[in-house]
Amino acid sequence: MKAVLVHPYRLGTAGLTTFVLRLQEGLTATGWQALVLVAGDSNRVVPQEGAPGLHAIYLRRMWPESSRLKAFAGFWAMLPLTLWHLWSFLRRERVDVVHLHFTIPASLYFVALRPFSRWKLLATFHGTDGYGLRRRGTRYRLLVRLVLAGADLVTAVSGDLLRTVKTVYPALRAGTRVILNGNPAVAGPLPAAALPPSPTLPDRFVLAVGSLIPRKGYDVLVRAAGLAQDRGHPLDVVVVGDGPEAAALARLARESGVGARVVFAGEMSHAAALQFYPRASFFVHTAREEAFGLVLLEAMSFGKAVIATRVGGIPEFVRHGETGLLVEPDDADALAEAMMRLDTDRALCAALAARGQETALRDYSWDRVVEAYRAAYEDVLRSPSRHPSPATR
Known about the structure:
Largest sheet: 8 strands, mixed
Number of strands: 14
Distance between the termini: 23 Å
Number of helices: 13
Order of helices and strands: EHEEEHEHEHHEHEEHEHEHEHEEHHH
Strand content: 15-25%
Structural class: alpha/beta
Radius of gyration: 22 Å
Shape: globular
Helix content: 25-40%
């Protein structure tokens, strides 16, 4: 059996890339053939050198943020050719399942091909693609509705995210399923010898990992560090990641009097980011919106206590006072108190870390995620098609 995992953007260091590549690896280990299709520059489907099973194609957007008229004309002019190359690729590879990750209007290319193909179509919501639907315009929501109408199965990475999608689309006809994320980190903590020397890092620090964008709420973390210092409890903080908010966050740190204590380590590979976890005292995740929070599972698997916001699917595995501490989003005062509490109460920090690690390694193994998706593929392949191909009509 063969599946194509569609990643609608270029590969990067974000959680979606980690998820798709780990799923490809896991499916291959179970006997499935798994290819990954990502955004590229060519109008054809082009294999990527040095990356087995990775292909790329340029999927134009009908309504981009800029040059709308030109892009709209280009989309329609190139649509037949793009569809032809996609159809030829999927037919040549004898694909059984096309799995869309991050469900957006660009997924409509595959919906258009679905009635003329034998493969089944799955669509998975990962976070902002579902939570952001309410903020989108009518045209965008209509296009996503068409994507969902063409899917054989719709999945989401948390129960809260799936409920959100169903609220926006109460007449959703496709089957639905929640498949919780798994721990994307390596198995167990890294050996001490693998850790790079980092003389610029403090001996004890609070760690945060993620893109520097408003949704991640790092301005709240910086303000909380300032409040803790004002209350006589200075904390060193290391933030791994980069993004458009980098300059504003650095300025906020200086204005809050913690410019020397908040270190912005910048963007790095997933493997490099993992090496910060063992040295951290505990982990903080300040997202204003989050379907799941893979970085929390990473931290928990490394035996680190976590503080997270009570949003989205996070409370489904970070249970307050048991596997971590929860605070309300945008509450810098509560976050400062929680950080001071963990920094002071070493016994509580150790207990939360131990229970969190047990949960992450026992209940959120990557093998479980792979098996859940493999079972979903096989279920839809056995079920009668909602979109029969010409050969089965």
